[in-house]
Amino acid sequence: MKASTSNIQTDKQRKLQSPASGKSRLPIDRAMHGLFLICGLVSVLAVILITLYMIVSGGPAIAKLGVKEFLLGNVWNPEAGQFGILPMILSSIYATLLAVLVAVPISVCTSVFLTFIAGKRTSSICLFLIELLAFIPSVVYGLLGAMLVVPLIFKLQSIAGLPQSGSLAAASIVLVIMILPTMINVSTSSIRAVPKAYYDASLGLGSSKIQAIFKVVLPSAKSGIAAGIVLGVGRAIGETMAVLMVAGNAAILPEFLGSVRLLTVGISLEWAYSSGLHREALLGIGLVLFAFIMIINLILNYILKRGGVNN
Amino acid sequence: MINPEMKSVCDVPMPEKSGPNLTIRRRRPLDTLVYGFIFLCSAAVSAMILFFIGYILYKGIASLSLSFLTTAPNPITEAIGILPAIINTLYMVFLSLVISIPIGIGGAVYLQEYATNTKLVKTIEFTTETLSGIPSIIFGVFGYIFFCVALNFKVSLLSGALTLTIIVLPVILRTTGEALKAVPSTYREAALGLGAGKWYTIRTVILPSASGGILTSVLLATGRIVGESAALLLVAGGSAMYMPKGNFLNQIMGSGATLSVELYRYAYVRGDTDIGFAIAVVLLTLSVALNLGCRAINRKMNGENNE
Prior knowledge:
The complex is a heterodimer. Chain A is mainly alpha-helical. Chain A has helices at 2-17, 27-65, 67-72, 86-117, 120-135, 138-159, 168-192, 196-204, 209-220, 222-238, 241-244, 263-271, 277-310; strands at residues 76-77, 82-83. In chain A, helix 8 runs antiparallel to helix 9 (209-220). Chain B contains 15 helices and no strands. Chain B is globular and about 70 Å long. Chain B starts with a helix and ends with a helix.
């Protein structure tokens, strides 16, 4: 973030210095300026429209159903007109937290390996594989999870005497795999951005490599690692298809080996055949999920900004 | 002047055979444990990815055949094929890129070459970041209420492409922006010095120099479009075994499933995982090809910069 702010400043200086930054005399130049400005404003317009439409379509539904009954209700039964989404909210939070808790140490350790331990060749092969992991569509993860992870959880469930179904555990494992590339990429680049002199100075003062990495380099990269964690949370809470294929999707309060329905799944599972109040309730779920995402975005922005100031 | 602390470190009696493996001798037991954990994590991640690829190929290759790729499913003859899904995917990629690439490049050019108002730049950058953080299911819900209902485009390939345009816009903006940033400012100055106007400079000097980055953004966007499923299920439909018919407008106004949606439908809704894996092989091949393409472009650009 610090880099990008300083870039804005240098860009500004550069543009002010360049003679063409003033009002151009050529009409084509002025026309293209306007056209590019419109293109730039499309993303602003998109965010405004999305926010507006999510609130306008989801808000009335929540108001109609009652804020408290909707957010804190335990029962989701559209046929009986009961729309309580507390189980979905809790399931989403649990699955996300579990996934991130497991993914953080793995991603930090992998980043350390890629930066400090692996040779250039090994590290580039590993990075290629991790990039590939990020390229694979989420339905493919859903399929892999359904064929590889869910049967493993079935065994645990039969040992525990529980019915065999998709579960919170399976959903969390699939989410761990899906958020790893993002988290590894962000923490690797933030670790690489720490000046090599810190590491060398620490070694020079007699610390071991591990001490230098964990006591000097990682603390210096902490805002980048934190940003990676928040990005991981955002991805995990928003993931739909892969989770839908492994979580069992019963709208009941979450248990580790029990079937769960996440917020995202709540929307997509019943969307096609919903109508009337039911559809409105799904739009309400959309608004709740959107609120979660916006909060996560703001936290991310705050971390990046504060990291920039500290540096 | 010698730092007193440094001095005390120097005063520590050295072991007899001091040499390059000093650090190894000093390694604490905890260090060994941490090393072990680091190696375990990295090896597990790499092994897992390789295993996934192997598993998908092992399960999917058997059901994959030329007729599988080139026929439409027919419930009467019980033929199974993914030709309609491939065609829908191509339409979706084409339509989304045609809309999003000019907007994305235009926006990036504005941010890098024109904008002097820091507040506006920050607003655009903030909204771009926000867009890239919104999950696809939210785009699906928004796309449905806005494109399908409010603009009356119905559940169609067109609605899907418009929704995907918003989804891939941040990727294109960011990647193209970085490529434009990497164009040396001497190029701009030289062009201006030769009397070229701003638009002429951008068209003939800056965009061609950034073509590698622009191509990378196209590949990344294609990957995103091909992999998208949650949003398309809502806005482009995923139920019909649809084969595009009629003229171009009729075709893009029809609903249809892309490869990813078709994979979901076969594997989850119908429980036919063999076909799911066959489609997964196709998607995986595409992912690897796009990834290799990005890397090749990157390597070429870095090579040119180093020369």
